[in-house]
Amino acid sequence: MKKFVILTLLFFVPIFKDYSIAQSLTKFSGLAYFDYFYNISNKDESKTGLNGFQFRRVFFTADFDVTNKFSTRFRVESEEKSLLTEPRFNISLKDLYAQYKFESSQLFIGLMPTPQIEIEERYWGYRSVEKIQSDLRNMVSTRDIGIALRGQVSMANISYWLMLGNNSSHGAEKDKYKRLYFQMSNQFNSSLAASIDLNYANEASNKDYIYSRLGIYYLTENYNGGMTVSGGIKKKFSPTNSDINEIGLSLFNTFNFIPFGKAFFRFDMYEPNLNAVNDREFTFIAGFDYKLEKNFSIIPNLIYNDYENRNSKDDLTFRITFYYQF
After folding, report:
1. What is the number of structural domains in the chain?
2. Least confidently predicted of 16-20, 52-56, 92-96, 125-129
3. How many CB atoms lie within 10 A of CB 78?
């Protein structure tokens, strides 16, 4: 019996050792946006006065460093539609990619973020309150399946990000057409940065899409913010087979004036079709981030959407957002 116990321990010790190593190389994390909301007014009259509690975003992430050069990410998320409209939550795959690090660049393959999202979200800082405009207006998808290369130009503060994707967002490829993404950014100094984005998608019947964005961002000890101008040309997308030209402007700022909180505001202008009339929208967002802990905030906020078409009632929603990471 004693010999059996010794042999058993000798067998399992390497397994426990490998498991311990795996644990040390794996990082698990999660995030949630939880609101109390009240629709003071809404262009959909049936939603005026609607109020209640909701999750707007929930995800769980596992990052695994296989070696010091090779790593992977697995992330699942509750589908936004199911969180807001369905009787029960549905889980979907958000990220599933592998990353290999070269000396001054990284190669990515799989389901991954697209280049247009990261830098603006970082300087806006409040994805917990609202998406950046190009995401909110569906000008570009936040995810795609493909291959990407990103890195930094030697002896300069210029970074690049190049990606070729299916243009299918989180879904499987259904046609032969693709989307090419490109971003270049420059960190001029510790306080000032700029970026330019271009991407092109080809579709059937020459219904191509061209997207561009220029962004200027700043960061100081007590302030951060930026301005972006985005534009898209949708070739032959209108019912009359003509082009649709969309444009958006976003201005945002955050003031860190007390130790435990920040005030923020944002103004968006969106014109979905320059060739149409009465379709412009203005969006105003303001709020205060009361930080109870490093990863836990209570954020009262107000979102107002003004429609140029006066046949539509403006939207005004008050929310108390609870943001937490773990």
Report:
1. 2
2. 16-20
3. 20
